[in-house]
């Protein structure tokens, strides 16, 4: 297990990597700073093409909330800071409408330096009210993906996609967002939305941030509709473990380019 130390110096470097102005390999770093570059570097890099990373904050027993729906906050302080760093490194953060309705998240970067990503909600039936916090105007793009012709305020972009049996194709969602210039997507939940992307093989990485508490019952972080009956058929991603302090992150590479992204790159422009 690697212990991550996100010093101001290493975070500045990662923001430069995100802008394409630096690499993750050069420089003098402590072991903790090097671990931070290894964890966040693949999310900051833009030289490997479009990416979609999902992250779930869950308890030791795999829950994201209690049976009454209390979900704030499963993650400890370092897990929350980690989530905000992930947002700061992404072009867009994307959630399902059930999370938007249940948690009313702002999806902004508040616990680290860095700009806010675009905010995207998958809302096929147009259920999200116009005064939802994530639609608040703050200079950042806000996008609603809908299957119905529900009008939105002029400062909110609507992407209209066709649903089949009530489902939108995650590949069409990703393509539409890439078409809007959003290449690096953070799929922040909930479990239904992440499962759709995972099943469509669109996730480059899946991060499980485990906080040391036992909830006992309540919604699971992730349930795949097409589960395996034999362990031999289970998905076994290439996984790295990082201690953040209060929480532990399992960082799973799900595609070939994810493994490539964990290799340091030499000769990045303008370092
Ligand atoms: N701990 C964490 O990291 C974390 C993060 C986020 C959320 N959460 C928790 O997760 C819970 C909500 O998650 P959830 O899994 O129930 O729901 P969700 O993923 O937030 O939202 C699912 C809904 O989004 C729409 N949707 C998403 N992908 C779609 C697709 N491909 N095609 C069509 N519609 C799609 C559907 O809306 P319709 O229902 O309108 O059809 C679907 O029911 C809350 O309790 C929240 O607190 C935890």
From TrEMBL:
<keyword id="KW-0560">Oxidoreductase</keyword>
<dbReference type="GO" id="GO:0008703">
    <property type="term" value="F:5-amino-6-(5-phosphoribosylamino)uracil reductase activity"/>
</dbReference>
<dbReference type="InterPro" id="IPR002734">
    <property type="entry name" value="RibDG_C"/>
</dbReference>
<dbReference type="InterPro" id="IPR050765">
    <property type="entry name" value="Riboflavin_Biosynth_HTPR"/>
</dbReference>
<dbReference type="InterPro" id="IPR024072">
    <property type="entry name" value="DHFR-like_dom_sf"/>
</dbReference>
<dbReference type="GO" id="GO:0009231">
    <property type="term" value="P:riboflavin biosynthetic process"/>
</dbReference>
<protein>
    <submittedName>
        <fullName>5-amino-6-(5-phosphoribosylamino)uracil reductase</fullName>
        <ecNumber>1.1.1.193</ecNumber>
    </submittedName>
</protein>
<keyword id="KW-0521">NADP</keyword>
<dbReference type="Pfam" id="PF01872">
    <property type="entry name" value="RibD_C"/>
</dbReference>
<comment type="pathway">
    <text>Cofactor biosynthesis; riboflavin biosynthesis.</text>
</comment>
<feature type="domain" description="Bacterial bifunctional deaminase-reductase C-terminal">
    <location>
        <begin position="53"/>
        <end position="223"/>
    </location>
</feature>
